[in-house]
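Weekly structure sync, notes
Attendees: PL (lead), two postdocs, one rotation student
Agenda item 3: pending single-chain targets
PL asked that the sequence for the first pending target be pasted directly into the notes so everyone works from the same version. It is reproduced below exactly as submitted, 354 residues in total.
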Amino acid sequence: MSLEQQIQKESERFQALFDRLSDTQWSDGALPEAHNYLITCKDHVRLTQENITEFNTAVEKEHKRLLDIKGHGVRHTWYKVRGKLEERLDEQEKTWLQEFEKCKEEEERLIVLQEEVRSAETYLHECQTAYDEYINTKQKLDEMLEDFFSGSTPSYPEEDVMEQDLKKQEEQLISLQNQHRLLTHVFQLLHKAHQAVMIARRALDDALNMNTFDLFSKSSFADIAISSNLARARNASMQAQQFLNEAKRVSPNIPHIGQIFIRQDNLVFNIMFDNIWTDMSMRQTIHEALNRMCRADTFLLGILAGMKEQLERCEVDRDKKSKHVKCLATEHFIKRITIVQNIIKMPPPYSSEV
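Predicted structure, written out during the meeting:
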């Protein structure tokens, strides 16, 4: 069966799908707008409810003041003695009424806004229903067109060229997407490694400060604090090394940073044989570890900066390629639709029996 015969055979089903697609295509652009509109309406409701709460508080406050003046308390007596009771009552009643009116206005506004939210929700549901049908119809129509045009179609060489170009561009897009995922993963691992190095640096700084204190105090507490900080630095350095190893496994091109492991001395030995020489030896050990962490910190910052630039370029290329592929897919879809419609419009071939 030729392509033309196949299309003529499926013409009614094609037309039904095409008409349904045309009827629901509006939802493709309307759905995100409806979603954003609903969010805006809900924000207005939330702000109005906050205003009502605020105005209610003000109304209660002013009403309490009014009752104090009307009653027989200190305020009432004070204004009455001064001969300003009626004047003050009028002022307080006006203030209370103003706040009360504001509250009522916001409550009326809230009713209107809540109705807008209900309408927006109904419209969003309509858009979602139409969009679901649009996607489902588009998929069925794509499958039908693929059955018609998959492979070589010598009668329509332009469609063949567009199909091959689209496939090539889609493969390039997939490659860019995979590259972006890989770079993102490596960047996150390096960022975690850098955070661990920073923790190790802070712990080493604390250990160095306690070592300085130990030089003058000869306190066993200082040795315990130094050991605790060194343990924290060692654990952080081990975490950093694990993140770096994983990053290098995923991306072997990452430069080698060097040894960042931190050695920890024996706490019992340091307490039992605490003297100026053990303290100075410990100080030297901390300085060496701190220098390694500083170098690793600087090195990682440079790698992260370069990786971020690479990731941003890849993201730009990926988004650009994605838009290009969408345009090509739309053009290819329209081309196939046009071919099918032209074939359906063609009069049936003349035949006569001999």
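Discussion points:
- The CA atoms of residues 187 and 307 lie 6 Å apart.
- DSSP finds nine helices and no strands in the chain.
Action: rotation student to compare against the earlier draft before next sync.
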